[in-house]
Amino acid sequence: MKWIRWKEASMIVFGSFVLAAAFYHIHVQNNLAEGGFIGIALLVKQYFNISPAVTTLLLDIPLILVGLKLLGKRLAINTIIGATSFSIFYALMERYSPFSLNLSQHLFVASIIGGVLVGAGLGLILRHGGATGGDDILSLLISKISRLSVGKVYFVFDAVVLLASLMYLSWNEVAYTILSVAVCAYITDLVLYNRKQEPVYI
Asked: Could you say which residues form the signal peptide (predicted)?
């Protein structure tokens, strides 16, 4: 229990709620694609018919273990908190949420709103020493090695995955998702670095 700092944990849980709400009510309901490990899992599902639940788990576990070794036990614990709370919130919203936000005819608006909310949720989680999965840890590690900001690393990683997704998605869907990812990267950096003290990683 000494590795759990409850103020950090509560902010990570709140960030996960914002993240889940944005993904479900903006991205999913308006057919915007996904980057990161979720996007890779969708590609694997498309061509090999393997469940994204299995793929994301196989991708996450090694990187959580790497994060434990290189970035510290606190990050690993906080990642478990972030990933678990995100999954719970998303499952509850998917099943019980009465809200439907149809912006399919206004994908520019959807991509901007989605990017702002996802970036805010992700920034809160990272700022308080957490992550939502292995791709977050990978971005943190690349940021430390390359000195690129976390948001820029996210943008490059997600853009590569989304370009690969053109094998089964339309240019229109991918273009608006890349716009959302760019907004998300900017907001993530704004939230993560908008204080004098460095973000907590270990």
From this structure: none
